[in-house]
Amino acid sequence: MSESAVEQSKLLIREAGLRATPARVATLNLLQKSSSPLTHAEVAEHLSKTGVDKATAFRALNDMTEAGLLRRTELGDRVWRFELIGEGEHEHLGHPHFVCVDCGQVSCLGDIKLNQRSLSTSTQIGRITEILLRGQCVECL
Ligand SMILES: [Zn+2]
Ligand SMILES: [Zn+2]
């Protein structure tokens, strides 16, 4: 973990109005490096290597979600996953996700953008909270 990444995480956490505790900094850094949203269990497992216990990891995730730093998503398997809210992204609707129906691997599709028109073609849609694509990943195909 580079010095500047740690400093940047501390700054983000403080800007959100929280104290930059080691557990929060480690959680934010982990999610920043990840190309997919992570579950409580995955974050807790990574953080345990640095001596952070499970309950502290859970609290760090929840605190930073409440503070608007992280987004919590549920992708159809009733498991909460956490990821960083990207620059310019909405707190609740970020980018689409891809889920492999065979192995369950979740990927962020950050570069796929839906325009205003594709969101408004149906009069039934009130507010979109999640865009989810399902299929087989390259490993499972
Ligand atoms: Zn797969
Ligand atoms: Zn994502």
3D architecture notes:
The model has no long low-confidence stretch (mean pLDDT 88). The chain is an alpha+beta fold. It has helices spanning 3-15, 22-33, 40-48, 54-66, 116-119, and strands at residues 38-39, 70-74, 80-84, 97-100, 106-108, 132-135. The chain has a three-stranded antiparallel sheet. Strands 5-4-6 form a three-stranded mixed sheet, with no helix packed on it. The protein has a single domain (3-135), classed as Arc Repressor Mutant, subunit A, CATH 1.10.10. The structure holds zinc ion (ZN) (2 copies). The site of one zinc ion has 8 residues, from loops. One zinc ion binds next to loops.
- Helical run tally: 5
Look at the structure and name the CATH superfamily. Answer: Winged helix-like DNA-binding domain superfamily/Winged helix DNA-binding domain
Element pattern in H and E: HHEHHEEEEHE
Output mean pLDDT: 88
| Unreliable sequence segments | none
Classify the secondary structure makeup into a structural class: alpha+beta
Q: How big is the Rg?
A: 16 Å
The proportion of strand residues reads 15-25%
Tell me, what is the CATH class?
Mainly Alpha
CATH architecture: Orthogonal Bundle
| Overall form | globular
The small molecules bound here are:
zinc ion
Major sheet details: 3 strands, antiparallel
